[in-house]
Design brief:
Blueprint (H helix, E strand, L loop, with lengths): L12 H14 L3 H28 L8 H13 L1 H18 L4 H26 L8 H29 L5 H30 L9 H22 L10 H32 L10 H83 L2 H28 L2 H6 L1 H16 L3 E4 L9 H22 L4 E8 L2 E8 L6 H5 L4 H12 L3 E6 L5 E7 L10
Parallel strand pairs: 1-2
Antiparallel strand pairs: 2-3, 3-5, 4-5
Helix pairs in contact: 2-3, 2-4, 3-4, 3-5, 3-7, 4-5, 5-6, 6-7, 6-10, 7-9, 7-10, 8-9, 9-10, 10-11, 10-16, 13-14, 14-16
The structure holds adenosine-5'-diphosphate (ADP) and magnesium ion (MG).
The site of adenosine-5'-diphosphate has 17 residues, from helix 14 and helix 16.
Length: 538
């Protein structure tokens, strides 16, 4: 089948640039390494510079340290062996420009590199295949190992250097260590998730526009409410938790990490200006409290996003399994039907021919007793042959495979009327239409189950079966005028027949609705989406 060439989409210059950048980043080699090192150094330096500049205004935010998250992300995603020069250079220049000695700056930079190195190593090991924190255990590893454990390295080396170079005293060292540690942890928990989420290849299918609008509105609401909470002293900071959690649960990791970032920026900015819940105590205590708050918010929000991702992954696994079971079941039925028909059916027919010959000879010889025996055996055999035909049809009617779903539905309706004496009105397409094997099986099985349900439960006087297809979408409606399905049967998860129909529909991308019909009776509606042409399902 010839594919028509994809329409060339008009690329905006920005999209083109992003695509170009992505292709550079995805092709290993010297160019990529140089570009990445420069990019990391610039990002690290800029984030650090901004953070330090904020510190000169007010001690309270002197240590929120985004560079820790940037370095962790870079090492985890692209490998520390390639990128450590960029991180080391940026960390060194940040420290010298902040007035530290050459030796002191080099030591602190080494501590920062070691911290990110160990953090990235632990995260890589714990994450395995994951490229974003998409499982609860991934979040645990990111926050617990990289956020809490490896950050102790940078804080310890840093504070020791300050002590040795005389930049601080033993009395304040413990406090500085705490603030340094939680500041790096904020960097890891707040900044790295956003980078991981944005650099990951898009796995999810494109979402409708209104979902994006909803996410943006929720994020704006979060920003505004954070600002309101942090605009006054003594308000409860954790009032932002539910909304941030909700955003992550409903919209996933990208929106969740944006939520964390927004709260961090707004809360940091307000605290810096001297407002909000984290301004009542000594600068170090305030800072420690703010940073702990942000780390907890980050962990909680990431956990919510991971919960959502895990739930979706397990739903997808179940759907695949259900699809597999349904197709395997159908294949097995087809195989058994063929075997029973070919082998048993033919053996019985051969026996019948043999018996007929025997009967003929007994009649010639005139032995009435043997004739009676042979006649008895022949009629038993007739019963057996009929039974085989019936079983084969029930397993999988040949019309379905030979003549397609329209004939099979007609056949099912005939069987139904023969059994129940309830007339069926058929509204079927006059001509066969293109449909694959899987979809036509679903049409037949749903008809079969719906008619069986009418036989067993409906007490109907008439049945209407309506099948039509338009623009590739096939719709099947089976309506009876019986007593109508009870509300609790619709909701009952143990209605296995209805559940089976739903699963079959879902397994090939369709849906099934069961409703009470008006004025009375029950309507079963199956909608199957456009069949991908050229794709064979057998
Ligand atoms: N056409 C119908 N009319 C009235 N009730 C129905 C109809 N189809 C289904 N029901 C009700 O819904 C229940 C669930 O149906 P189903 O899942 O097929 O289970 P089962 O047929 O094994 O009872 C039935 O027990 C019956 O009470
Ligand atoms: Mg049933």
């Amino acid at each position: 089948m010839a594919e028509s060439p994809p329409q060339a989409l008009p690329l905006s210059p920005l999209t083109a640039l992003a695509a170009r950048l992505r292709s550079v980043l995805d092709t290993p080699g010297l160019t990529r390494d140089v570009v990445l090192n420069i990019a990391i150094a610039v990002a690290y330096g800029a984030a650090g510079h901004f953070s330090l500049a904020a510190a000169t205004e007010h001690r309270a935010v002197s240590s929120l340290w985004p560079p820790a998250g940037i370095a962790l992300f870079a090492f985890t995603r692209y490998g520390a062996s390639r990128l450590w020069p960029g991180v080391a250079a940026a960390a060194y220049f940040l420290n010298t420009s902040n007035g530290l000695s050459i030796v002191g700056s080099a030591l602190i930079a080494a501590g920062d590199v070691a911290e990110a190195l160990v953090g990235a190593w632990m995260v890589r090991r714990a994450w395995g295949e994951s490229v974003v924190p998409e499982r609860l255990s991934d979040v645990g590893a990111l926050a617990g190992l990289a956020g809490a454990v490896s950050t102790m390295i940078g804080a310890t080396v840093g504070v020791a250097t300050l002590l040795v170079t005389g930049a601080t005293t033993l009395a304040t060292a413990a406090n500085i260590w705490l603030v340094w540690w939680t500041g790096d942890a904020v960097g890891v928990v707040v900044v790295s998730p956003l980078l991981f989420a944005w650099s990951a290849p898009a796995a999810a299918p494109k979402r409708p526009r209104r979902r994006h609008v909803e996410a943006i509105l929720l994020l704006v609401l979060l920003g505004v409410s954070t600002d309101l909470i942090f605009a006054r002293a003594g308000t409860i900071a954790f009032a932002v938790f539910p909304l941030a959690g909700w955003i992550a649960l409903r919209h996933g990791l990208v929106a969740g990490s944006l939520a964390i970032m927004i709260v961090t920026v707004v809360a940091g900015w307000r605290t810096l200006a001297g407002y909000g819940p984290f301004t009542d105590f000594s600068p170090t205590t305030n800072l420690f409290a703010l940073q702990s708050f942000l780390v907890l918010l980050g962990v909680k929000t990431l956990l919510f996003a991971a919960m959502r991702a895990e739930a979706r992954a397990s739903r997808a696994r179940l759907a695949r399994l259900s699809h597999l079971l349904i197709t395997a079941h159908e294949d097995e039925r087809r195989r058994v039907a063929r075997d029973v028909h070919d082998e048993l059916g033919q053996a019985l027919t051969a026996a019948k021919i043999g018996l007929a010959a025997a009967l003929h000879r007994t009649q010639l010889r005139g032995s009435l007793d043997s004739e009676r025996h042979v006649r008895g055996a022949a009629s038993t055999l007739d019963g057996a042959i009929e039974a085989v035909q019936r079983i084969v049809l029930q397993l999988r009617p040949g019309v379905l495979d030979n003549l397609g779903p329209i004939a099979a539905i007609e056949y099912a309706a005939q069987q139904f009327t023969a059994q129940t004496h309830v007339p069926v009105t058929l509204a079927l397409p006059p001509e066969p239409f293109p449909i694959d094997d899987e979809h036509s099986t679903v049409l037949y099985r749903v008809t079969q189950e719906a008619l069986t349900n009418i036989t067993r439960h409906a007490e109907a006087g008439r049945v209407l079966v309506h099948l039509h297809h338009r623009n590739g979408t096939v719709t099947l409606r089976i309506v009876d005028d019986g007593r109508g399905i009870a509300e609790e049967s619709l909701r009952n998860p143990r209605s296995m027949g209805i559940l089976g129909m739903r699963e079959r529909a879902a397994a090939c991308g369709g849906r099934l609705d069961v409703q009470r019909a008006s004025p009375r009776g029950t309507a079963v509606t199956l909608t199957l989406p456009r069949t991908p042409t050229g794709v064979s399902h057998d």
